[in-house]
């Protein structure tokens, strides 16, 4: 998906593509940030919720057909919101049991659900074509082309992604600095303290988890409509680890960091992808292997040398920043 | 007919289950003694399998030599990785170690891709001739070897844990690390041996998996979740639990196509559902607790 070697004939088009992926991964990382960065919920099933958002949005917007479920022909916003709600609903169902688990069990359980979700989309051919997948139309293309002839259509996606990122960013920052956000952080730092303070920890965790997964669902919806295609191959567990790397790179707990991390990750993946054209020493499979091996090393190195990421995690509640409310949280 | 189907499911479950159990014993020991779930365990298996492929197919040597080299090279790799990747994080708690192990998994998987590409690989040797072991049920020579080797190795682990000083230290470490240290157990040395044993079992499981089906860079990660299922089912830190869990998971895996509404595509999903179920009902597993 981000992989294929590119002939860069069209620099603008290429840069737009990279930026769109930064935006999509940025959304996923923002969703993960409220879960892991703010609440300490170890969700490594990210791509499963992205898949639910994408598939639901596709089903809601494509024209009816007998070869897949529905096809409801709704306009794009219905697909986007529907995708988010579906991702949130699936997250809610999954969360009922798993949120009670210890962090390492939670990790294993979420990765298990992620695979189950992928296997369901792969095997239930009646729903969305199984391995063949669905074709999804990009919205507003005709409108864009008649209003702004000659302007690259991908600018539409940039605008939409920037809008979504800004909206979620503002909401998350508000939450972050609200009493709700402080409870989340107290759960992250020490669940027992939050419990002792009389907080209904499970309920807070639930809201954080569901909201994060809804943002992931939005990312899935955009991804499906942008690519114009959806099938189970877009939802391998590897992508979840990309999102984790993006968040850890930027600094978990930090919403700006999440988006910045997505940018750095794409810069790295695309930068090394560009080398493909010039390196004749190794095959492109080998170069790919080297890139991803480097991603692995990066993850280990991050844990050892800079677990707080580039922008740093704001461990503000109990350490350093004093305990005077959320004042230490301000950027 | 029904009886034959049941026997078939049990026999194939036993075959897949012994691979899962063998890998699970190693994963379980590492989980309880190094204190984190090693997400690179499946990729470790594949590395052992591919090293054996190198000896057996690319150098044309006997499978027994390939087996030995596969085991030794993975043990060496796991010790180097432990020193470079995990040791600096030893006191950071399970989460940084878990994340680092995901990085290690990516690294090892792509090391394999770099040297052997992405296509599936098979070992040389033509012992696919099936023999009838029970009325209507056939096993190939490879499958019989697989089950025998897996059970022999698991028995060896049992002897090691129950009869040797090292085994005692390992059980103590998994029970209570501080207490073990205080009573004079060298934590680092015990940990090193845990990696050696865990990696040796992982390599063996990877090679057996390759013998039974084939090798592919991604297969290790896929099977890892089934192995986690076995480990959690049996109770983390209980090697005997992992053995029983492995067999249950193996049978559930092979029984999946016969469950109404499911087909073979859901084989792995069934194992995850069992895992999630046990996490909810009895997170400490059937045999729960520390290394017994």
TrEMBL record, chain A:
Keyword check for Metal-binding, yes or no. no
Q: Membrane spanning segments where?
A: 14-34, 41-62, 74-98, 105-122, 153-172, 209-228, 234-251
Gene Ontology MF annotations: branched-chain amino acid transmembrane transporter activity
Q: Where is the signal peptide?
A: none
InterPro entries from the UniProt entry: ABC_transp_permease, LivM-like
Q: How does it sit in the membrane?
A: Multi-pass membrane protein
The superkingdom of the source organism is Archaea
Tell me which GO cellular component terms the UniProt record holds.
plasma membrane
Q: Which UniProt keywords apply?
A: Cell membrane, Membrane, Transmembrane, Transmembrane helix
Which cellular compartments is it found in? Cell membrane
User: What Pfam families does this protein's entry cite?
Assistant: BPD_transp_2 (PF02653)
Q: What is this protein called?
A: Branched-chain amino acid ABC transporter permease
Organism of this sequence: Natronomonas aquatica
From TrEMBL, chain B:
Tagged with keyword Cell membrane: yes
Query: Its topology with respect to the membrane?
Result: Multi-pass membrane protein
Question: What Gene Ontology biological process does one annotation of this record name?
Answer: D-alanine transmembrane transport
Q: Which GO terms describe its cellular component?
A: plasma membrane
Q: One GO MF term, please? A: L-valine transmembrane transporter activity
List locations, semicolon-separated: Cell membrane
Kindly indicate where the leader peptide sits in this chain: none
User: Where do transmembrane segments lie in this chain?
Assistant: 9-33, 53-81, 93-112, 144-161, 191-211, 223-252, 264-281
Q: Which InterPro entries match?
A: ABC_transp_permease, BCAA_transport_permease
Keywords, sorted A to Z:
Amino-acid transport, Cell inner membrane, Cell membrane, Membrane, Transmembrane, Transmembrane helix, Transport
PANTHER family membership = BRANCHED-CHAIN AMINO ACID TRANSPORT SYSTEM PERMEASE PROTEIN LIVH (PTHR11795), HIGH-AFFINITY BRANCHED-CHAIN AMINO ACID TRANSPORT SYSTEM PERMEASE PROTEIN LIVH (PTHR11795:SF371)
Q: In which family does this protein belong, per the annotation?
A: Belongs to the binding-protein-dependent transport system permease family. LivHM subfamily.
This one is known as: Branched-chain amino acid ABC transporter permease
Q: Which organism is it from?
A: Natronomonas aquatica
């Amino acid at each position: 998906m981000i992989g294929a070697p590119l002939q860069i004939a069209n620099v603008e088009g290429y840069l737009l593509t990279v930026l769109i992926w930064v935006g999509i991964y940025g959304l996923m990382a923002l969703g993960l940030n409220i879960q892991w960065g703010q609440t300490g919920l170890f969700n490594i099933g990210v791509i499963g919720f992205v898949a639910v958002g994408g598939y639901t949005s596709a089903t809601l917007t494509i024209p009816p057909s007998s070869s897949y479920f529905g096809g409801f022909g709704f306009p794009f916003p219905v697909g986007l919101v529907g995708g988010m709600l579906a991702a949130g609903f699936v997250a809610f169902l999954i969360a009922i049991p798993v949120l009670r688990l210890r962090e390492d069990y939670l990790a294993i359980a979420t990765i298990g659900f992620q695979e189950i979700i992928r296997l369901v989309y792969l095997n239930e051919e009646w729903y969305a074509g199984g391995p063949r997948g669905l074709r999804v139309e990009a919205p507003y293309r005709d409108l864009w082309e008649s209003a702004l002839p000659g302007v690259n259509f991908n600018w539409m996606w940039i605008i939409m992604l920037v809008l979504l990122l800004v909206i979620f960013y503002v909401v998350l920052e508000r939450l972050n600095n609200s009493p709700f956000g402080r409870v989340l952080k107290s759960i992250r730092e020490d669940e027992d303290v939050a419990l002792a303070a009389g907080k209904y920890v499970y309920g807070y965790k639930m809201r954080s988890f569901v909201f994060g997964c809804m943002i992931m669902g939005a990312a899935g919806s955009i991804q499906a409509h942008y690519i114009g295609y959806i099938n189970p191959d877009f939802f391998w567990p590897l992508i979840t680890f990309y999102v984790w790397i993006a968040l850890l790179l930027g600094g978990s707990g930090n919403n700006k960091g999440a988006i910045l991390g997505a940018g750095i990750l794409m810069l790295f993946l695309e930068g090394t992808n560009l080398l493909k054209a010039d390196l004749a020493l190794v095959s492109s499979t080998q170069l790919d292997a080297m890139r991803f091996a480097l991603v692995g090393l990066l993850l280990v190195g991050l844990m050892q040398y800079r677990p707080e990421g580039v922008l740093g995690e704001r461990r503000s509640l109990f350490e350093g920043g004093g305990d005077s409310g959320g004042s230490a949280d301000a950027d | 007919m029904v009886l034959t189907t049941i026997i078939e499911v049990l026999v194939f479950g036993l075959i897949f289950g012994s691979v899962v159990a063998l890998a699970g014993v190693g994963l379980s020991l590492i989980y309880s003694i190094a204190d984190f779930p090693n997400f690179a365990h499946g990729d470790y298996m594949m590395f052992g399998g591919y090293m054996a492929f190198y000896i057996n197919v690319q150098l044309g040597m006997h499978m027994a030599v390939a087996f030995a080299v596969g085991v030794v090279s993975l043990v060496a790799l796991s010790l180097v990785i432990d020193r470079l990747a995990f040791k600096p994080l030893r006191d950071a708690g399970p989460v940084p170690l878990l994340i680092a192990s995901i990085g290690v998994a990516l690294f090892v998987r792509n090391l394999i891709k770099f040297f052997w590409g992405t296509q599936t690989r098979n070992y040389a040797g033509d012992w696919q001739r099936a023999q009838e072991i029970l009325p209507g049920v056939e096993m190939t020579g490879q499958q019989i070897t697989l089950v025998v080797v897996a059970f022999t190795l698991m028995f060896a682990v049992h002897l090691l844990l129950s009869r040797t000083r090292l085994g005692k230290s390992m059980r103590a470490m998994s029970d209570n690390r501080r207490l073990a240290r205080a009573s004079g157990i060298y934590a680092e040395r015990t940990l090193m041996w845990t990696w050696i044993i865990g990696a040796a079992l992982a390599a063996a499981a990877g090679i057996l998996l390759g013998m039974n089906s084939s090798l592919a860079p991604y297969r290790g990660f896929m099977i890892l979740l089934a192995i986690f299922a076995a480990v959690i089912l049996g109770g983390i830190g209980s090697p005997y639990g992992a053995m029983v869990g492995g067999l249950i998971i193996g049978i559930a895996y092979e029984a999946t196509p016969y469950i109404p509404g499911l087909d073979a595509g859901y084989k792995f999903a069934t194992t995850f559902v069992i895992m999630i179920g046990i996490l909810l009902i009895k997170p400490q597993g059937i045999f729960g607790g520390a290394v017994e």
